[in-house]
Design goal:
alpha/beta, ABC transporter transmembrane region fold, 2 domains, 6-stranded mixed β-sheet, 4-stranded antiparallel β-sheet
Length: 572
Amino acid sequence: MSDRMDPRLMREGKRARGALYGSIGLGLLSAWVVIGQSVLLAKLVTAISFLHQPLSRLETPLLLLALLFGLRALLTYGAERLASRACLTIKTGLRAALLERLFARGPAEGAASAEHATVLLDGVEALEPYFARYLPQMYLCVAVPLAILAFVFSLDWISGLVLLVAGPLIPLFMVFVGYRAEAINQRQWLKLLALGTHFLDVLQGLTTLKLFGRARDEIAIIARISDDYRRTTMDGLRIAFLTSAVLEFFASLAIALVAVLFGARLIHGHFDFYPAFLVLLLAPEYFVPLRGLSVHYHARMSAIAAARQIFSLLDAPVPARGSAALAPAEEYEMACEKLSFAYDGRIVLQDITARFPAGSTTVIVGASGAGKTTLSRLLLGFLTPSAGRILVNGQDLAEIDPESWWRALAWVPQSPRLFKGSVEDNLALGLPARDFAGLRNAAARAHAYNFIQSLPGQFGAAIDEGGANISGGETQRLALARAYARQAKLLILDEATASLDAGTEAAILDSMEQGAGVTAIIIAHRLTLAERADQILVLQEGRLVQAGTHASLAAIPGPYRDMLRTREAAYV
């Protein structure tokens, strides 16, 4: 798998090819500067120690040596900056591609949001060491040692042969260790996904856990999962430290062997000090890129583990979408013909045939799990039917471009989402242009205007992330106002008034009926909404079992009358 991942990661590097090549080029220049430094330093030591030249006569070489030190620092800094810039470009491009794929799959497709968030944040971030350090080092560990090796061979073929034999041992050893490290990194990434998903679930259900006295139990579970992740991380670090220690041993052994060989020849006068000292200065530099590759080799393993999840998401199939534009109309009528849908082979809806007349209000009722929310997601175009079709003014919804379809409707889900910003920002979300008068009218229709006026700053009042600083009922009224502000001819509400009192709910239904030509489809548990609807659809175990008005359905035996009797018994 890792063999297939490397080429894919390399292709991602093409997003910032120029910056990556620039970083590698500066690294190569830095290597030649190192050779120049070593030559100057060897000459200076020879001149001072053996030729006994005064420092006053060596000012030019000393100045040049200082300049080379400064140049090397600048080249290293420039290489790191270019690598960081390349990483930023690659990460931005990858996150944009991932978001585009998530948008294309739709809100009802794919895995848990925590898993997606982990891939988008930690997964993409894990690629930075690969592109910033490992990838440039991979090129440098070939070019730099070869340059130094050629220089050493020109001075002493015996030392060159020692370095030539010792050098390949390091990447060879990394390959052997890599298989074990890859398995550990893959396990570490899966544990991180599990930790992130569980932690987000706990945060979202924190209120429920505290009410039921289970918060401490969840703390213990998170502690156990965190400890598993810590142990896996330490396993990877242990492999990394052991690998570094062994590689340092090989490098030190080779340098020591070169020093011993030179020492023996110097003692017997078979070799001059200057070339011997120069080779000893270059020998550690010969291993620097190879050491760097071994250090960053584990960054490659982490990147490959993260890349599996990233490319798995990028390669996930996208549901087929239509391309035809929705025909403009003053009113929209919808119809379902033999509509069926199954989740993972489990049938949720079966053979639903119904009409939603233009300008009417239809309320869909049924017990929990009857398929009401699934039907709303199919009508919204978030899900693709397993069988049957949905028609909009005679057009097959499967053939309509989703963007064109979503522009024609407004939707309020069970748990509407408010974003950090002002009240006005949230109400104007998705509007092509802000119309303050229109926002005020929409707030009034949703019975949110008075509550907005009571806020400090009114329409400019700050809303926390998720509407944390306002009540659930206020959140629902703002969401309804946002839907009204779109002035859409089709309105789909999924338990959108569940947190409102009966009086406010009735007033909102009155305002909904005042919207000329608006086709409203409402999923409700409260039968007070059904009593005022033009049409009621009753779902039971994924099937449409009744359809009609409140009066007609209440007059005949069936699930709807049973629900009415259950409601009446609850008030007795």
